[in-house]
Specification:
heterodimer, A: 301 residues, alpha/beta, Rossmann fold, two-stranded antiparallel ribbon, 7 helices, B: 650 residues, alpha+beta, Immunoglobulin-like, 6-stranded mixed β-sheet, 5-stranded antiparallel β-sheet, 12 helices, 27% strand, elongated
């Protein structure tokens, strides 16, 4: 066998095995829908039968009855912000769950006064295990859940009290200098941690912590019911979308996304025809090559 | 290890490192709750206790209850769980005991001021018990705080430390409660001491005529006030209806009193009537207060009864007819009543009716499906008592039916005809949102005003050959009275393009295989001819010696045709070359391929062999006849190769 053939076959083998590994090795990155570890959101996505959207540009048509979950850990382009605004104005519900990300960029663009404080919300008394995981027990109205546990959360600012859905406890405070210790100059709770803002025909729901949706938190106390409640605030929703395009992704995630796109592209009619034609030609050539010469043999010899 | 293996190993190592190391580079927006280290804050706990005690002292029972109810969610060491529970229980006890004590002290003040010692005595006993219980609560709070403080080691902390200050602050607040109880205890002692001297008891009688009366009618109340058998004239006597003062009358010369009082419009069947005297002015410090034995006044009034029913089904967003019939006792006249209608305590309408009412209730579009309460009330008018009745209204939604034949098989690419109608018991589902999903294909549309639809769903190319999938149809009605419909059915998806291509591939294979098979007998025959008589493995070609080969070639060359001579020499040369080069002339090889494979071994002799091969090919594949010159050339080339191989062997 020639050296060139060996290199080509080896390269094809490596690519195939790599693609399989990338496809099947689970993501370990925060908030990834494919991540079944403690920091992914696979449980939430599966339970809510949410479909992932790799691009906010694909949000088209009638949004009424749809709920979009956004964890804004990457910044937005003007086109994406416009898509979010259109989604809301056409009747969709957006759950903007942020703590230290780019949520305020979205709020600024939408022109609403509410903001994420961007400061860690600590509660030394009403918490799970330590002050970084505050327990929320004050809600605007009686619900099926009584406690929600946050995880390294922030808080909301400039929210009308009529729009607030949940508050932190009176022992909570904002750790302005991130020293994890109470200082008398720090703002003291209660702080709003979830709010509902009507916007156009739709509803903008703010939550000051996206981590309540991760696999290790979603089933704590009333977190699951709380998220379901938030998603249903815009009226009964028929479908849930999960924006996966603004999460910090690893090369593995990028590669998987690329593979998905390649797969989608190959699924198009013309691509499919081209692939099948190529397979047909290669198979035919191979069969002809290995099937022996068809020329007349020297029978006299 | 080969280079290829090294590259492969490096690639996988890099892939693994990239996928595992990535989370460490990212920001930390959360921590694993199962691995989080517990951390407790005694300072916050003591401050929370202090704030709670502030609310206790302020008498804000609601705030205290809310704060203490939340303690179950506090993150505290299990070791002080009991101490915390004790603090909560004691605080809850305190917050309910203190206001009760305050109320009782106020009542005691009034009773003692009015010299009503008989009524004051049980109150004093009650107060004593309440104070004792309150002291116990305070003691428990203090104990719990001390246990908590000891657990967190506050006594080892500097006096100015946060934890020590918070702890001391809590104890100070607890002492404030104790001080307040001390004040009440002293006050109680002083009150009792001030009324300990002897007073003259008084007697009071009472009668009410008639014993039964309609609301709004007048009754005559009379009685006598005396002290040690002597009538007390010119004293004020309060007439109490159900313990409330309804009127005041002054006793006459014989200590008697009489008054006409209107029966209040209290639509209760009985009123307890009592007369009360308590000393005032000059009587204060001389006589004791007295309360007459109670007299029961039977109150008469007309009571209405409503029967409520609904006509039709109560669909959300539509209206339902309420029917109400009003009935009274036989002796009552029918009068027009103002009725109020409520749905789940929300006022809907006020209408007037005498004996029956029919009213259309508009059910809100966002009403919850399920059992609701419709309340009909009538306010009181004179002798007619207020009336109220509840009825359960079961608000529901109508189920949709889809008039459409679902396919069992769909072919892609192509189009799927979606024609049908959606309706419910209420009527057609207008402008309903229909979502059809067949495998990975989706199509959405809205129904027409008559609930019908006629759509074509495009089924584009996708991967796959043939397989089963689910066809899901979801209908989301625009009307609030219809509920969504979901239908799911298993279907067979046939990809015609891929199937066609597959069949084409099979056909292509079917064309090539026969060609291959047609050649098979020839090759087999050639193989059989090439087998030596005494098969001695592994030689494929027959074994000859040089002399045998030469002899055979020369024999062929003497009297044979030029063509046969050329071929004979070429066969000889091939056999020699096979043996020399250790290359087997395989059935699938062409002559040129064989020459190419032996070129490296033969060296310059390969040129002679190639020239000889071209000569043979010309004779084989062209119509040019072989000449003697060809035979000579073949012989010459054969000998050159033979000689060359001989020299090499030597």
């Amino acid at each position: 066998m020639r050296t060139g053939s060996v290199v080509i076959i080896a390269l094809a083998l490596v690519l195939a095995v790599s693609a399989l590994c990338v496809w099947f090795v689970p993501s370990l990155q925060d908030f990834m829908a494919g991540n079944a570890m403690w920091n992914g959101v696979r449980t939430f996505v599966d339970d809510s039968q949410a479909s992932q959207t790799a691009s906010l540009g694909s949000l088209t048509g009638d949004a009424s009855g749809s709920a979009l979950v956004i964890i804004p850990y990457l910044d937005y382009t003007p086109a994406e912000l416009s898509a979010i605004k259109d989604f809301l104005e056409s009747g969709g519900t957006i759950l903007l769950a942020d703590d230290f990300g780019y949520g305020n960029h979205v709020l600024e663009y939408l022109g609403v006064a509410a903001r994420f404080s961007g400061q860690p919300l600590l509660d030394p008394l009403f918490c799970y295990r330590n002050q970084n995981m505050p327990k929320i027990t004050d809600f605007a109205s009686a619900q099926s859940f009584q406690v929600v546990v946050l995880n390294h959360a922030s808080s909301l600012q400039n929210v009308d009290s009529a729009n607030v859905l949940a508050w932190s406890s009176s022992t909570s405070f904002l750790d302005l200098n991130r020293t994890e210790a109470w200082n008398k100059n720090y703002p003291k709770g209660p702080f709003p941690v979830a709010a509902k803002l009507p916007y156009g025909e739709g509803t903008l729901v703010l939550a000051a912590d996206p981590s309540l949706m991760i696999n290790s938190m979603i089933n704590y106390e009333g977190n699951h019911a709380f998220v379901t409640y938030l998603l249903g605030l815009g009226g009964g929703h028929r479908s849930v979308l999960f924006d996966a395009s603004h999460l910090s992704a690893t090369p593995l995630d990028y590669t998987r996304t690329g593979l998905s796109r390649v797969r989608e592209a190959l699924g198009q009619p013309y691509s499919l025809l081209a692939v099948m034609a190529a397979v047909f030609i290669i198979a035919t050539r191979w069969m002809v090559h290995t099937g022996g010469s068809v020329e007349r043999q020297p029978t006299d010899l | 290890m080969t280079s290829f293996r090294r590259i492969l190993l490096t690639f996988f190592a890099a892939l693994l490192a990239a996928s595992l190391a990535a989370p460490a580079f990212a920001a930390n927006p959360h921590e694993d709750p199962d691995k989080a280290q517990p951390a407790y804050s005694a300072v916050t706990l003591f401050r929370y206790y202090s704030d709670t005690i502030d609310s206790i002292l302020a008498g804000d029972a609601a705030t205290v209850t809310v704060r203490l109810d939340k303690m179950v969610y506090a993150n505290l060491p299990p070791s002080i769980g009991k101490a915390t529970d004790d603090f909560v229980d004691a605080s809850m006890g305190c917050v309910s005991a203190l206001p009760a004590i305050d109320r009782d002290v106020a009542d005691l003040r009034v009773l003692l001021r009015q010299s009503r010692l008989e009524e004051a005595t049980p109150l004093v006993n009650k107060l004593t018990d309440e104070l004792s219980q309150a002291y116990s609560y305070v003691h428990n709070m203090e104990d719990s705080t001390n246990i908590t403080g000891a657990y967190f080691g506050v006594f080892n902390e500097p006096p100015t430390s946060d934890i020590r200050l918070a702890y001391e602050g809590t104890l100070q607040k607890i002492n404030q409660i104790r001080s307040r109880l001390d004040v009440i205890r002293d006050l109680l002692a002083r009150l009792l001491a001030s009324t300990s001297h002897a007073l003259t008891p008084t007697d009071l009688t009472l009668s009410v005529q008639p014993g039964s009366a309609f609301v709004g009618d007048t009754v005559e109340v009379s009685g006598t006030l005396s002290a040690s058998g002597q009538p007390l004239a010119g004293r004020d006597v309060n007439i109490l209806f159900n313990s409330g003062v309804r009127g005041t009358v002054t006793t006459g010369a014989g200590g008697t009193f009489s008054a006409s009082l209107t029966v209040p419009y209290w639509y209760n069947p009985r009123i307890r009537v009592e007369a009360l005297y308590y000393p005032k002015d000059t009587d204060d410090g001389v006589y004791l207060a007295s309360l007459s034995p109670p007299v029961t006044l039977n109150v008469l009034y007309y009571q209405a009864s409503f029967s409520v029913s609904f006509l039709g089904t109560a669909y959300r967003g539509r209206s339902v007819t309420l029917q109400t019939a009003i009935a009274y006792s036989p002796d009552a006249e029918m009068v027009q009543r103002d009725l109020e209608i409520y749905l789940d305590n929300v006022f809907l309408a006020e209408v007037s009716a005498t004996d029956a009412l029919t009213w259309k209730i508009d059910i809100p579009a966002d009403a919850r499906v399920g059992r609701h309460t419709v309340t009909v009330t009538a306010s009181a008018i004179g002798r007619y008592a207020p009336a109220l009745t509840d009825a359960v209204l079961d608000i529901t939604t109508a189920g949709l039916t889809l008039g459409m034949k679902l396919p069992r098989v769909i072919f892609v690419p192509g189009e799927l005809d979606l024609t049908g109608a959606v309706a419910s018991a209420v009527g057609p589902a207008q402008n309903a949102h229909v979502k059809v999903a067949a495998g990975s294909y989706t199509h959405e549309f809205r129904t027409a005003q008559d609930g019908s639809f006629q759509q074509r769903m495009k089924l584009r190319f996708q991967f796959g050959l043939i397989g089963s999938a689910y066809m899901d149809i979801a209908v989301y009605p625009s009307e609030p009275w219809n509920r969504p419909l979901t239908i799911s059915q298993s279907i067979l998806v046939v990809n015609t393009i891929v199937c066609g291509a597959f069949v084409l591939l099979m056909l292509a294979a079917g064309v090539l295989l026969p060609i291959k098979l047609k050649l098979q007998p020839a090759r087999s025959r050639r193989r059989r001819l090439a087998q030596p008589a005494a098969a001695s493995p592994p030689a494929v070609a027959p074994q000859y010696t040089d002399m045998t080969a030469l002899g055979a070639a020369e024999t062929a060359g003497t009297g044979s045709e030029p063509r046969a001579r050329v071929f004979s020499w070429y066969a000889l040369v091939l056999r020699l070359v096979q043996r020399f080069a250790k290359v087997v002339f395989k059935p699938q090889h062409t002559l040129r391929e064989f020459v190419a494979k032996t070129r490296k071994t033969l060296g310059p002799l390969a040129d002679y062999l190639m020239e000889f091969t071209r000569l043979v090919e010309r004779l084989l594949y062209s119509r040019a006849p072989a000449t003697d010159a060809d035979a000579q050339a073949g012989e010459q080339l054969g000998r050159r190769v033979q000689d060359g191989l001989g020299k090499v062997n030597q």
